[in-house]
Amino acid sequence: MKLCVFDFDSTLMDGETIDFLAKELNLESEVSLITRSAMNGEIDFFESLNKRVGFLKGLSKKRVDEICHNLPYMPGAKESIKALKDRGYTVVVFSGGFRTATTWAKDILGYDADFSNTLHVKGEILTGLVGGDMMFGFSKGDMLQRLQAILKIDRNSTMVVGDGANDISMFKYAQTRVAFCAKEVLKKEANVIIDKKDLTKILESDRCI
């Protein structure tokens, strides 16, 4: 058995979920600035996530679901996941974004499971609070180690694919580390770098075992 873990935002999906949500409130510029700083590793991920989600207070859950269920997926996402599964991989998503996006996309793109965060809702309206599996900068690495233990997979049989600073922690525990259209801070930790928006390019690497 082999394991491949994908990031979601700006990796399997072409953009940042939270930026799409903020656009609905005409707050995209404010939120995307913080997102960019977080992905560059310039500010703490936990603090940035809470601050950005705070901007979403008052947005209806119905509208959140509509936006998250109509996100643009990255070219080659579905094809690369199918090819990996045909090669014997279990394919999982770790996302600092939200389950309303990642769980919806699971059956569309074909991955096996998703671990992400949940936007808090009261009376069908977002409260500006968030909780979940991927709240911290170390969360992806921590979850990867636990998943490897459950599946009895070591780092030599693990591939990870991401684009930003919050993916660094999982890069530490994988033999194949793909920086996909990534920030420089992540490229430094990678042994496969892809700068074209086409996820099928990962299948061409001789490290894709």
Account of the 3D structure:
The radius of gyration is 16 Å and the shape is globular. The chain is α/β, with parallel strands linked by helices and 209 residues long. The model has no long low-confidence stretch (mean pLDDT 96). The chain has helices at 17-23, 28-39, 45-54, 61-68, 77-86, 99-109, 139-151, 168-171, 184-187; strands at 2-6, 89-98, 113-122, 125-132, 158-162, 176-180, 192-194. It has a seven-stranded mixed sheet with strand order 4-3-2-1-5-6-7, sandwiched between helices.
Per-chain topology:
Elements: E1 2-6, H1 17-23, H2 28-39, H3 45-54, H4 61-68, H5 77-86, E2 89-98, H6 99-109, E3 113-122, E4 125-132, H7 139-151, E5 158-162, H8 168-171, E6 176-180, H9 184-187, E7 192-194
Parallel strand pairs: 1-2, 1-5, 2-3, 5-6, 6-7
Antiparallel strand pairs: 3-4
Helix pairs in contact: 1-2, 2-3
